[in-house]
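Query form — protein Triosephosphate isomerase

QUESTION: What is the three-dimensional structure of this chain?
INPUT:
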Amino acid sequence: MASRKPMVAGNWKMNGSVELITTMADTLKNASNNKIDVLIFPPFPLLSKALEADIVAGSQTVSHEDAGAFTGEVDAKLVFELGCKYTLVGHSERRSIYGESNDVVALKFEKAQENKLIPILCVGESETQREQGLTESVVAEQLNVVIDKLGVAALVNSVIAYEPVWAIGTGKTASPKQAQEVHKFIRNKIAALDMSIAENITLLYGGSVNDQNSELLFAQADIDGGLIGGASLKPDAFLSICNSAQRNA
Ligand SMILES: O=C(CO)COP(=O)(O)O
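ANSWER: The structure tokens for Triosephosphate isomerase are given below.
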């Protein structure tokens, strides 16, 4: 019997403000979070404000190094010490804009877990890759690099977010059927290695999720919640997405 808990996570990217933390904290008090996990990934300087306001918060990335002369980087140990439970790793914007390879993403995943953070591993194909029928092989490779390096057991304390690159910030959401197909592929792939991990791992969908489409997406059997970009900057829309997840929990 699967025991996975739905999750709604807001990735603010390079957006937000101290004021938005306050508004969001007030709004999220209305989200009864007992059945789902609700969390925010604000920019680094807002993390302590979010935690002080009782928002569960995580970082948008962590360094793949422990410490040292890496100007501008932030290490996982510090993020954990601050009070965070989660970090994103391998978001497609980190991969495409900052050149993070699958190997670097796997190192970040490892550093997160070594420092007691739960990594949310982002995977997903580009539009061209989908058109070429490569969706499953791209997603499989992104997962394999982590599994080959750390073993399938490393997935126990992790979350996977399927975010098709063509759906991010474009308003082109994957249909519930398209998203479910890839989520099912991911769960089956893990199940081939370990059934219990596959049944219990939380799989999020991300890419133009809003308060109009979240209900149907979250109703899919293998979609356990969402990683929300733009709509997570609008407290009312974000609350309404949380409520959809709650209804489907
Ligand atoms: O990248 C995303 C979340 O990590 C999705 O962004 P949007 O919801 O703005 O498409």
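ADDITIONAL NOTE: The pocket of 1,3-dihydroxyacetonephosphate is lined by residues 11, 91, 163, 168-169, 206-209, 227-231 (CB under 6 Å).
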